[in-house]
Amino acid sequence: MVAASAPGLGQRVTALLLLALAVGALYLVVDRVLVAKYRYYRTHLEQQQGRVAQLERMAASREPIQRAIAGIQQDPVIATQYLPQSAPSLAAAELQQRVKAVVEAMGGALRSTQALPPTEEGGAVKVTVSAAMTGDTESLRKVLYELESQTPLLFVDNLDVSARENRPRLPNGQLASYTRVQLSVQFEVSGYLRKEGG
């Protein structure tokens, strides 16, 4: 039988170095993975904490905003900005009369008006009238200003203007030597009715 000889000091040191190297490499790999996960979770946590803080600020501002909205809804000045009628059909008829009066007072000629179907917007009912008129640029400017500066609030939308030049007839029946610009205008005028509970 051959007796096994004990490993020498050099072999033991080499084995210990290899073991230390393997443990160190294993430690570095585990450390890198754990540190990377830690950093990821820490960044994610900071982002979520920022989002929670933002939501808490928004929640804290809710009550003052609701109080401000309630104050606006109860303000008597705001009530005058709505059309006073109780039904959309009555409001549309009144709006048609108002458009006719404004156009004629400002030197234009109203060709037609038509009530469009009412639509709901938030806590109000939008009443719209379509109108067609002819006139010059000055009468159009005055009509638009007069409509949009009234109380209750009125809004002019979908303005379509086309122009043509014409020579007016003089009192003696002859055509003038100058031309005037005649505008054909189509537009919509809208106002709002308060909806119950709106």
Structure characterization notes:
This protein is of the alpha+beta class. The chain has two domains: 9-74; 88-194, 2-Layer Sandwich (Alpha-Beta Plaits), CATH 3.30.70.60. It is 51% helix and 26% strand. The chain is built from four helices and four strands, in the order H-H-H-E-E-H-E-E. The protein has helices spanning 9-74, 76-79, 88-105, 137-148, and strands at residues 109-121, 124-135, 155-166, 180-194. It has a four-stranded antiparallel β-sheet with strand order 1-2-4-3. The radius of gyration is 40 Å and the shape is elongated. The model has no long low-confidence stretch (mean pLDDT 85).
Q: CA-to-CA gap between the ends?
A: 106 Å
pLDDT averaged over residues: 85
The major β-sheet equals: 4 strands, antiparallel
Find the CATH superfamily of the largest domain: Ribosomal protein S6/Translation elongation factor EF1B
Overall helicity: 40-55%
Q: Count the strands?
A: 4
Notable characteristics:
elongated; 51% helix; Alpha-Beta Plaits; alpha+beta; 4 strands; 198 residues; single chain
Summarize the structure.
The protein has helices at 9-74, 76-79, 88-105, 137-148; strands at 109-121, 124-135, 155-166, 180-194. It is of the alpha+beta class. Strands 1-2-4-3 form a 4-stranded antiparallel sheet.
Per-chain topology:
Layout: H1 9-74, H2 76-79, H3 88-105, E1 109-121, E2 124-135, H4 137-148, E3 155-166, E4 180-194
Antiparallel strand pairs: 1-2, 2-4, 3-4
